[in-house]
């Protein structure tokens, strides 16, 4: 069988995005990979709610290897989410073979996610409307979708070039500061710098420029996943290895692809942590290579024919249950973890303390943390395991509702 270059440009009608429609557009390997990083995400948020935020797991002078890895493994979440969102946009577009319809979906879906970020999700984080609104991962995904809605009209090679250029070159913009842009400083904060925009009472935790590049590359990568299984697995493996090797090379060179330099030390544990300690806000080139490269390797591993049959692996079925309802999982796990943490504080420490709200207000007022604040790491892992156990049947239940739903509204849930 003749293989097809996945990135080969093909002429098409202005509103067409079709390549060769697969018989089944939903790939279990994508859902399983999304489910895996959601498991990691749950660990990170369990650390934030059950743990002690006075301790920085990436501070190499005070952290421990186990504490560092607890945080580091969760770095795979945001890049994989955004990359898979791009793939999902490509596959969604194959259903109608119409760019206008896809663009409409991306804009409405993006606005919906931004609305949820500032309302339902915000309340899940803080259970209070006191702190400034936080523009974090869900809003960043929504904004990236809106940007992608405009960019999909570019010819495929040009869109791929734009995405790769943003991913590989956005760190060259690091020397620019909001002050360089005068009245347009808030725009630069949103795009690349991050931080607070006081007039809008808004904190930008996830500047969107790099994430727009990631979602564009993910969208173009959707073409790869329309090939036959052996071909797409080979491409996932090759590109995943190339990204990972490039990350190792850039970090070895030290000073290229990441503003955070490695620490020169004879302590191999500190040296290893320093090697892996890449910049996330905004995501550096090294950070994206370090995360998306291995994610593609896992995608190739999950795309085996034996795993396509859910009954062959219970762990795979669990990941599918999580990964097929990502928005439900995200919202449900925030409320579940936050409420569980407050109950734990109430039972063990005598007060239903809200961990993130307490941490934020303490930072704002420069006050001391309450004496009852913070639990050890073993509590974090115990809470994480319990949260996953509770969420599993809930995700199965909601997944059945979603599959049986007839309304188009289910595509937004």
Rg computed from alpha carbons, rounded to a whole number of angstroms: 21 Å
Distance between the termini: 39 Å
Can you give the mean pLDDT? 90
H/E series, N to C? HHHHEHHHEEHHHHHHHH
- Give the overall shape, derived from the CA principal axes: globular
Number-wise, the strands total: 3
Largest sheet, if any? 3 strands, mixed
Helix share, percent: 55-70%
Structural class: mainly alpha
- The fraction of residues assigned to DSSP E strands is under 5%
Question: What key phrases describe this protein's structure?
Answer:
413 residues, mainly alpha, three-stranded mixed β-sheet, 62% helix, disordered N terminus
Overview of the molecule:
A 3-stranded mixed sheet has the order 1-3-2. The radius of gyration is 21 Å and the shape is globular. It has helices at 28-50, 65-72, 77-96, 99-126, 137-151, 156-169, 185-193, 209-221, 229-253, 268-276, 285-302, 314-323, 326-349, 355-365, 377-404, and strands at residues 133-135, 195-197, 202-204. Helix 1 (28-50) packs across helix 11, helix 2 (65-72) packs parallel to helix 10 (268-276) and helix 3 crosses helix 8. The chain has 413 residues and is mostly helical. It is built from 15 helices and 3 strands.
Task: Indicate the topology.
Layout: H1 28-50, H2 65-72, H3 77-96, H4 99-126, E1 133-135, H5 137-151, H6 156-169, H7 185-193, E2 195-197, E3 202-204, H8 209-221, H9 229-253, H10 268-276, H11 285-302, H12 314-323, H13 326-349, H14 355-365, H15 377-404
Parallel strand pairs: 1-3
Antiparallel strand pairs: 2-3
Helix pairs in contact: 1-3, 1-11, 1-12, 1-13, 1-15, 2-10, 3-4, 3-5, 3-8, 3-11, 4-5, 4-13, 5-8, 6-8, 9-11, 13-15
């Amino acid at each position: 069988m003749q293989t097809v270059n996945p990135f080969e440009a093909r002429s098409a009608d202005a509103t067409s995005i079709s390549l060769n429609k697969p018989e089944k557009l939903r790939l279990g390997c994508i859902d399983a990979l999304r489910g895996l990083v959601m498991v990691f995400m749950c660990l990170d948020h369990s650390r934030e709610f059950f743990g002690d935020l006075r301790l920085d797991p990436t501070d190499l002078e005070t952290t421990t290897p186990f504490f560092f890895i607890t945080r580091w493994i969760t770095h795979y979440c945001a890049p994989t989410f955004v990359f898979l969102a791009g793939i999902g946009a490509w596959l969604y577009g194959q259903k109608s073979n119409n760019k206008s319809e896809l663009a409409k979906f991306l804009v409405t879906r993006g606005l919906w996610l931004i609305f949820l970020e500032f309302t339902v999700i915000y309340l899940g984080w803080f259970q209070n409307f006191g702190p400034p609104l936080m523009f974090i991962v869900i809003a960043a995904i929504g904004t990236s979708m809106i940007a992608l809605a405009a960019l999909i009209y570019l010819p495929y090679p040009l869109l791929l070039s734009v995405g790769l250029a943003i991913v590989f070159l956005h760190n060259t913009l690091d020397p620019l500061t909001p002050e360089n842009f005068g009245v347009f400083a808030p725009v630069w904060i949103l795009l690349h710098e991050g931080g607070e925009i006081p007039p809008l009472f808004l904190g930008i935790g996830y500047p969107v420029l790099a994430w727009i590049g990631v979602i564009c590359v993910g969208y173009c990568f959707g073409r790869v996943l329309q090939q036959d299984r052996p071909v797409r697995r080979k491409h996932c493996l090759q590109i995943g290895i190339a990204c990972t090797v490039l990350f190792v090379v850039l970090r070895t060179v030290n000073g290229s692809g990441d503003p955070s330099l490695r620490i020169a030390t004879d302590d191999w544990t500190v040296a290893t942590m320093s090697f892996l300690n890449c910049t996330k806000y905004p995501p550096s080139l090294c950070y994206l290579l370090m995360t998306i490269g291995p994610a593609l390797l896992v995608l190739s591993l999950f795309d085996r024919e034996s795993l396509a049959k859910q009954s062959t692996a219970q762990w795979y079925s669990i990941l599918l249950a999580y990964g097929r309802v990502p928005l439900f999982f995200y919202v449900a796990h925030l409320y579940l973890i936050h409420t569980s943490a407050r109950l734990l504080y109430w039972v063990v420490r005598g007060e239903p303390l809200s961990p993130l709200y307490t941490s934020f207000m303490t930072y704002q007022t420069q006050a001391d943390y309450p004496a009852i604040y913070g639990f050890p790491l073993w509590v974090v892992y115990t809470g994480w395991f319990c949260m996953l156990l509770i969420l599993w049947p809930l995700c199965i239940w909601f997944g059945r509702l979603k599959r049986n739903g007839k309304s188009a509204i289910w595509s937004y849930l």
